[in-house]
Amino acid sequence: MKITRYFSDLYKVPRNPSFKSLTEKDLKYFESILPSSCIVKENLESYNEDWLSLVKGNSSLLLRPKTTQQVSAIMQYCNQETLAVVPQAGNTSQVAGGVPVHDEIILSTSSMNSIFKFDENLGVVWCDSGVVLETLNNYCMERGFIVPLDLGAKGSCHIGGNLATNAAGLRYIRYGSLHGNVLGLEAVLADGEVVSDLKALRKDNTGYDLKQLFIGSEGTLGVITKLALLLAEKPTSQYVACLGCESYEKVLQVLSLAKKELGEVISAFEFLDKPIYDLILKNVTSTRDLLRTHHNFYVIVETSGTNSEHDLEKFESFLEKVTLTGMAQDGILAQDEKQAQEIWKVREGTALSTKMEGHVFKYDVSLPLQEMYRVVERVRKRLTEEFCAGYGHVGDGNLHLAVATKNPEKTAKALEPFVYEEVQRLQGSVSAEHGVGLTKPSKLKYSKTPQALQLMKQLKTLFDPKGILNPYKVLI
Amino acid sequence: MKITRYFSDLYKVPRNPSFKSLTEKDLKYFESILPSSCIVKENLESYNEDWLSLVKGNSSLLLRPKTTQQVSAIMQYCNQETLAVVPQAGNTSQVAGGVPVHDEIILSTSSMNSIFKFDENLGVVWCDSGVVLETLNNYCMERGFIVPLDLGAKGSCHIGGNLATNAAGLRYIRYGSLHGNVLGLEAVLADGEVVSDLKALRKDNTGYDLKQLFIGSEGTLGVITKLALLLAEKPTSQYVACLGCESYEKVLQVLSLAKKELGEVISAFEFLDKPIYDLILKNVTSTRDLLRTHHNFYVIVETSGTNSEHDLEKFESFLEKVTLTGMAQDGILAQDEKQAQEIWKVREGTALSTKMEGHVFKYDVSLPLQEMYRVVERVRKRLTEEFCAGYGHVGDGNLHLAVATKNPEKTAKALEPFVYEEVQRLQGSVSAEHGVGLTKPSKLKYSKTPQALQLMKQLKTLFDPKGILNPYKVLI
Q1: For A314-332, how does the pLDDT look when each residue is reduced to its tens digit (9 = 90+)?
Q2: Are residues B229 and B241 in the same domain?
Q3: Which of A129, B345, B446, B457 is deepest in the core (most CB within 10 A)?
């Protein structure tokens, strides 16, 4: 509780007085356009609080429309009445992006969850924005495809929320950005206007690519209601290995070799440093040491392909080179599904392991590969008494830096703005994949030029002149 | 000449009277801010005329700045004076997108052509927008990478023009869209403001992804001056085959099998129908029949990978299945570089072969795969006396439809709006990869909703209130 309060103070933003407070008349209007099952006025605690318990909003109304037309009618009314709205998907944001800060109406996409079209020839699926990522992936898997996106929250997060936040995750190194994989999108603008293009063509150069604006704008420019996604062929062969390296430089050498040797079949390249690896083994039950020896760095490499024999041959040859050249000192190639899961379990234990050590400060930054780990070392120098670790999607230049502490106020001062200044100095990004949400608008200046921020503000004003869509987020 | 005139009439747009005509005072100003080598006032014919000779503009001034600052100074002045400007890259547009329509100042990027940074670990190259695509690719090839974009005009087109038009080409099926591969971009807005983000991070979720707006906006929202591009590893193994199929349905079966069997190594999947194949053999010297037998359809499949033995094994197994199941009746796998070039020479002969048959109407449309060839058949039914053929990037749903005629006026009436209405009915795109330019703004209504067009216009007004950037193009 103490810790939650610490953050609540940190992210306190004054309510925008231009927003109207909800009245009985408004409720009556919503009751006139929506079935009663779409209107929730009680027990809103879990919708008011974000996943990391950074914020507790004070909304008294959650609307969960079932159709685009209903979303449109809601937005039209809210715009006319200047009622603020926070679109909420699976509420798994790491930056408190999907919860009300004050009394915003919560517009949940959870009742729009149908997968309504699938094309085997194209490898494209069409669905509502409220479909849970894992559900969508299972649906596609049964049909020989996978969603080109995989992340820890897949059991709760919505695909629409993934688009809104431009989510990335584990297999980004293989399948790339949603900016490349989203083929169609439907969104409701702040004034209720519907912009829809669900033709899902791989190629369509007929003017400005409007859907790109909604991808990554975190619900501040429109509410995504439907989408069409380009899928990847379901791999028929998958291998995963864990390697132990003595230095971060060796990790980079392994990465470089993996890109060359595993080329088109590489599907994940993750790293963990010794502190987080050891902490996971200590704090997360059902994990075990993967290697017989201890190392300063651990690398997880995965391949996904269409020919098991070929992939294994490539992987074994890669592992041989890695060992012979001394890039890695030890390694294990999972021999079956169980061993593969053991490896991934360690990687997935990062969040839980740090949580048990006290209050956790987590940074999700992009940095030049060569410099990435030096930032962790510099932070460690400043915080000799705290737990400090680095891990993440090194194949994509994405570092997660975690600091666990019993003394958040003091630690915060040592960490900020130091970490952000380092990121700025090294021309990195203050948010690689988690987005801006409520917690990072004030940090944008470390990553964006004043000209870019100005243009963002102009776009926001164009799309949402009254600022009612997801207020207090992304831009301040 | 007759044919050029036919088109010139077709694309005649009245001059926007709000644009100022160039004066001596303006010239003096440009002379004061630019070296004399950057100012060209004579022999502008080739810059005034587009690649397909559809348009002859009447510009009397070409500026070719060397730096972003110079571009900025030019735009600032032009905006202040309401002087219209057409950004011009390699002038290889298929839709007259890069030439003046009236007396617009031509702003050429040809003197901004330095490749200024390369990162082997990331596989990223940074360069000016005026670098020729082939030059850039050669530079990257020497360093173990390739530009994830390949198209016929590579010897002339600029990488900045490729971005501005969201160019696609032959290997799109493998490497996907520039929306996914462009990591950084610098652009000068209509008022001279510079928006720059060249950090080139694979992951950066810090607000609206502004660069996406410039990709595919054809120079109407800003002038791209610099960029950072994610490269693909240079393949160490490449195979290409030509197959003969008896029906379009069989072509689709081959495509489906290729995706499954060749999976991660497939790098091109093209098709040609019998009329265009035969015409190429007849009209294009140094091409020869690739197969011993004749077929209704020809398919070209290419793989690019990192292991020659594996790729060959996959390709041979694929070819065996294709033949045994009767999907293809004949086929040839190139045994060496020479044979591979012979196959590609046929594919590349399409443009030249039709040009020799009279006036050519060419359509570049996206269509649902199942329906794609039926459109060609329907057009053929309407034009029993004209040459009519279909070919293109079937792997991406992109059809090129070519009609050659001695009687363009009559043929035009039979073709339009018929072709566009077919595209609309089938929920396709009236421009898959060539863009809108000057020739297709009036066709956008067949692909875009009124809401989308409205939003595009609002964006144009936000970025370029006076409409001076590439006027008469994209939007009308």
Answers
A1: 999 999 999 999 999 999 9
A2: no
A3: A129
Asked whether the beta carbons of residue A262 and residue B306 sit closer than 8 angstroms, the reply is: yes
Would the CB atoms of B444 and A207 count as touching at under 8 Å? yes
Distance from C-alpha of B144 to C-alpha of A172, rounded to nearest angstrom: 22
Instruction: Please answer yes or no on whether B451 and A121 come within 8 Å at the CB atom.
Output: no
Range of weakest confidence among A299-313, B5-19, B204-218, B311-325: B5-19
* Of the residues A218, A233, A248, the one at which a domain ends: A233
Residues B204 and B255 in one domain: no
Is B192 domain-assigned?
Answer: yes
Token pair belonging to A69: 């037309």
Determine whether the interchain pair B166/A209 forms a contact, defined as Cβ–Cβ distance below 8 Å. Answer: yes
- Quick one: which of A409, A420, A427 has its CA closest to A378? A420
User: How far does CA A371 lie from the centroid of its chain?
Assistant: 23
The C-alpha of B228 sits at a distance from chain A's nearest C-alpha, in angstroms, of 14
Q: Which of B180, B213, B261 sits opposite A177 (nearest CB)?
A: B180
pLDDT in tens, A19-76: 999 999 999 999 999 999 999 999 999 999 998 888 899 999 999 999 999 999 999 9
Select the residue of A193, A432, A451 nearest B203 (Cβ to Cβ): A432
Res A6 pLDDT > 80: no
Residues B353-387 have pLDDT tens digits of 998 888 899 999 999 999 999 999 999 999 999 99
Report if residue B335 sits inside a domain. Answer: yes
Q: Residue B4 pLDDT > 70, yes or no? A: no
Interface test with chain A among B119, B189, B205, by most A beta carbons within 10 Å? B205
Residue B465 to chain A, least CA–CA distance (Å): 13
pLDDT score, position B3: 45
Are residues B151 and B229 located together in one domain of the fold? yes
Q: What is the pLDDT of residues A149-199, one digit of tens each?
A: 999 899 999 999 999 999 998 889 999 999 999 999 999 999 999 999 999
Residue A255 belongs to what domain range?
A: 237-350
Q: What is the sign of the dihedral through the CA atoms of A140, A144, A148 and A150?
A: positive
Give residues 159 to 218 of A whose Cβ lies within 8 Å of B: 165-166, 168, 172, 176-177, 179-181, 193-197, 199, 201-210, 212-213, 215-217
Euclidean distance between CA atoms A258 and A280, whole angstroms: 26
Convert the pLDDT of each residue in A257-300 to its tens digit. Answer: 999 999 899 999 999 999 999 999 999 999 999 999 999 999 99
Query: 3-state DSSP: chain B helix, strand, coil percent, rounded to 5?
Result: 40, 20, 40
Cβ-contact A364, A398 below 8 angstroms: yes
H-assigned helices in B241-336? 248-261, 274-283, 308-324
Least Cα separation, residue A193 to chain B (angstroms): 8
φ/ψ of residue B80, rounded to 5: -60, -40
Same domain, A241 and A215: no
**Considering only alpha carbons, which residue of chain A is nearest residue B444?**
A206
Per-residue pLDDT reduced to its tens digit, B427-445: 999 999 999 999 999 999 9
CA angle A218, A205, B178 (to 5 degrees): 65
Q: What residues in B contact A313, CB-CB < 8 Å?
A: 307, 310
Residue A393 in contact with partner chain B when CB distance is under 8 A = yes
Looking at the domain assignment, is residue B195 inside a domain? yes
Q: Are residues B229 and B122 in the same domain?
A: yes
Q: What is the reported pTM? A: 0.95
User: Domain holding B95: CATH number?
Assistant: 3.30.43.10
Q: Are residues B288 and B211 in the same domain?
A: no
- Read off the pLDDT of each residue in A98-119 and give the average, rounded to a whole number: 97
The total number of residues shown for chain A amounts to 476
**Do residues A135 and A222 share a domain?**
yes
Touching check for A458 and chain B: CB below 8 Å?
A: yes
| Number of domains making up chain A | 3
The C-alpha torsion from B349 through B352 and B357 to B363, rounded to 10°, is 80
pLDDT surpasses 90 at B54: no
Co-location of B89 and B153 in the same domain:
no
Decide if B269 is inside a domain: yes
In the prediction, which pLDDT does B169 show?
A: 86
